[in-house]
Amino acid sequence: EAEVAQSPRYKITEKSQAVAFWCDPISGHATLYWYRQILGQGPELLVQFQDESVVDDSQLPKDRFSAERLKGVDSTLKIQPAELGDSAMYLCASSPPGGLRSNEAFFGQGTRLTVV
Amino acid sequence: AQSVTQLDSQVPVFEEAPVELRCNYSSSVSVYLFWYVQYPNQGLQLLLKYLSGSTLVESINGFEAEFNKSQTSFHLRKPSVHISDTAEYFCAVRTNRDDKIIFGKGTRLHILP
User: Closest partner residue to B49 among A48, A50, A104, by Cβ?
Assistant: First the structure.
C-alpha cells in the first residue's frame, strides 16, 4: 500500500540552528500539505501545494520558515533559525488531484522536532 | 472560512461502555467531513468520512458518525469501547470550494479498566 514518506522521524536541534524536513507524497497526488502539531493540539496547516505551486501559506511564519516542492513531487520544509517554540510534530500529507476534493488527506508518520 | 470545534478535550470512559465524541463545524458552503485517529508519536489515520448520501457512516472497527446538517455536527460514536481505542481523535472538514483541510483541536479518549 502506498504511503507518504517523511524523514527524519526525530530531530533534536539547538536553537538558532537550521533544520530541514523531507516529504515524499503518494505517487500521483497533486496536493501536498505541511502541518504543525503542537503537543496536545490539532494539526495546524502551514503550507499547501498544488503540484509545484503554493496555494496557501498564510499561516507559515515566513521570516524563518520556507517550503518548496520544485518538481511537484517531494517537498522540503526548512526552519532557520529554529526557536524553542518550534518544538512540535511536523506532519506531511498528500491528496489526489483536484476534482476529487471528497478524498481525504493521507498522512506520513511525522517528524518530531525538539529544539533545545 | 470553515472551522471545527471539538467540545471535549478529554473523554474518560470505562471499557465496554459506549462513547460519543462531539464535533461541530462551521462553513458557508458544502463540506466533506472526516474523523482521524492518532496513536502516540504516529501520523493521522483516517477512521471514517462523510461525502454525500447516507448521513450515517461506519468504520471497520465499530465506530460510526452521523452527519447532521441542521445542527452542523458530525459526532463520533462507538457502542462498546476497548483498551485498544485509547488514542486522540480529530474531526476535520474540507469544503467543495478548495482543498484546505481544517482540523479540530482533538479529543483524547481515555479507556478506564
Answer: A104
DSSP secondary structure string, chain A? Answer: ----EEE-SEEEE-TT--EEEEEE--TT--EEEEEEE-TTS--EEEEEEETTEEEE-TTS-TTTEEEE-TTSS-EEEEESS--GGG-EEEEEEEEPPTT-TTSPPEE---EEEEE-
B29 CB within 8 Å of a chain A CB: no
Contact A108 B41 (CB under 8 A): no
CA distance B44 to chain A (A): 6
pLDDT digits (tens, 9 = 90+) for B52-101: 888 899 898 899 999 999 999 999 999 999 999 999 999 999 877 777 88
Mean pLDDT by 10 residues, chain A (116 residues): 92 97 93 93 94 93 95 95 97 78 82 97
Q: What are the grid coordinates assigned to A72, written together?
A: 511537484
